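Backbones bend. To wit:
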Amino acid sequence: MDRSTEQNLARQQAVDDVGLAGVERKRRSEWSRSWRRFVRFKPGVVSLVFIGVLAIVALIPGVFEPYSYSETNLRERGNGPSWEHWLGQDDIGRDVLSRLIRGTRVAFVVGLSAMTISLAVGLAVGAVSGYFGGWIDAVLSRIVDTLMAFPLLVLLITLSAVMGPSLETTVLVIGLTVWSTYARVVRADVLSIREREFVFAARSIGANDTRIILRHVLPNVLGPVIVLASLAVGNIIILESALSFLGLGIQRPTPSWGGMLADGRAHIRNYPHIAIAPGIMIFLTVLAFNLVGDGLRDAFDPRQRE
């Protein structure tokens, strides 16, 4: 190799390095601008802090529980809030606060696990459907349309009854039934992205379809998908609470917020605090995830200005 060839190669490598550095700087700049837009939405920031606190409680609930969540005391059944039991005791004398704290873990495990499953399935189906088109798109789109035609809660109740209620069943049933929204959003974005110049450029240098989808297509649809995922966690928590309330979700003695609501339903007149505490927690948690989703929507909106 002569000297001029080596110089050309070195010059080309330098240009490539500069280009990659510029892309990386641009990506970091976009994320920093998105973060600044999110921080401007104060309810979203407060909600994110609240979710962070709940996540810590969910990771180490035993540290925060003042009593054992399964310890019963029939002589003090139905006692209201006091200095010893801040949220009172339930119908068989268990500490409501301890059970509420333990139920936080269940809510986060179900919410995040089911969201991850539905996100993975929705991304895969939507990307394949939108990228390849043709008969593949037609078949997958009909599957998505069929799934969305079923009443979701009825479908969840049916599947839970058939498979048997448990934590694992609740996660799988919810995760494998709520992915259609992700698929439709991803498909719509991929239909547009697959016609852009950088996709044609990747094909021209020999990149296969899998690499193009993973490296070039999916990163460009993550913005709206992240927003949908944050909103979906709150909806999944409501679905889990509904299943547990009906006796088809998390089973006793494991506490869940929906199960606590079901326990308090029969004693709502005599011991209303049993149902009030989990109801408030469901409301606050779902509201927090929705506000974070609103903040992320504004943060990833390219029309927003600094």
